[in-house]
UniProtKB/TrEMBL annotation:
Statement: the UniProt record of this protein carries the keyword Repressor: yes
Coiled-coil positions: none
Pfam families: MerR_1, TipAS
Xref: SUPFAM superfamilies: Putative DNA-binding domain
UniProt superkingdom: Bacteria
Keyword entries, A-Z: DNA-binding, Repressor, Transcription, Transcription regulation
Species assigned in the record: Streptosporangium sandarakinum
Annotated GO MF terms: DNA binding; DNA-binding transcription factor activity
InterPro entries linked: DNA-bd_dom_put_sf, MerR-type_HTH_dom, MerR_fam, TipAS_dom
Start and end residues of each HTH merR-type domain: 10-79
Gene3D superfamilies named in the record: 1.10.1660.10
Name this protein carries in UniProt: DNA-binding transcriptional MerR regulator
């Protein structure tokens, strides 16, 4: 049972594990490495977790969900005091990530609703519709590891919805400008083209990590596009052939960059 004394409320390690979904073994590991130590000990030596410990565990779990390692979390907790401002910043970041995940889930919900509507009309959905749904579920899992998906979601959540929408607008503008150069046959080493390519690459940078992990997610994204060009292009306002020409043009521009 949750313990109480005259001044404080506390939880045993088993109670905290059951309530939080973290195993007793994990809580003990957190204690050993200094990520989360119980604020009190009973006379028997058993750990007793306080309300402050509970709030710290919430921060640990939230930061883990955002893709941070335990070492990184330990540094964040050491440098960031437990105050309303720090908790507010964490909750806002967590909310942005959950919003992004909800958007992805909503796309699947709408796709599955479409399948159900056809079944309600006593007609079996076309195999292509099932395939599209399966692709939406599996495409990210195929090309990105769980860690990479978490990192992409975390960075998108940190950027916020406004910045993401702004990036989409800039992306459309860059595609239109570059496609005109492709159509006009502008040399890939033309200064104007090189500047557009630089802006293209800069646009994607905030969505990826700045170290080798970022290069890996960029490579995975390129591979996903190359192997699923038609399906992905179907969601864009430009023909798949045009986008293929554009991406080839971008590669030529990068290889001829001064």
């Amino acid at each position: 049972m949750i313990g109480e004394d005259a001044t404080a409320r506390w939880w045993s390690i088993g109670e905290l594990a059951r309530a939080s979904g973290v195993t007793v073994r994990t809580l003990r590991h957190y204690d050993e490495i200094g990520v989360l130590r119980s604020g009190e000990r009973a006379t028997s030596g058993h750990r007793r977790y306080t309300a402050a410990d509970l709030r710290r565990l919430y921060r640990v779990r939230s930061l883990r969900a955002l893709g941070m390692s335990l070492d990184e979390i330990k540094e964040v907790l050491a440098s960031s005091p437990e105050d309303p401002a720090a908790m507010r910043a964490l909750l806002r970041t967590q909310l942005r990530q959950l919003t992004f995940q909800a958007e992805q889930t909503q796309q699947l919900i709408e796709q599955i609703h479409g399948l159900l509507r056809q079944l309600d009309e006593a007609s079996m959905p076309d195999p292509d519709q099932f395939m599209t749904t399966l692709e939406m579920i599996s495409m990210l899992e195929t090309y990105f590891t769980q860690e990479q998906r978490e990192e992409l979601a975390r960075r998108r959540g940190e950027l916020g919805a406004e910045a993401v929408e702004e990036a989409k607008t800039h992306f459309v503008e860059l595609v239109e400008q570059l496609l005109r150069h492709v159509q006009d046959g502008t040399p890939a080493d033309d200064p104007q083209v090189q500047e557009l390519v630089r802006r293209w690459d800069e646009l994607a940078t905030p969505f990826h990590a700045e170290d080798a992990r970022g290069e890996q997610t960029k490579a995975a994204a390129r591979r996903m596009w190359q192997e699923h060009r038609d399906q992905l292009s179907a969601r864009l306002p430009w023909p798949a052939e045009k986008m293929a020409e554009l991406l080839a043009y971008l590669e030529r521009a990068r290889t001829t960059a001064h």
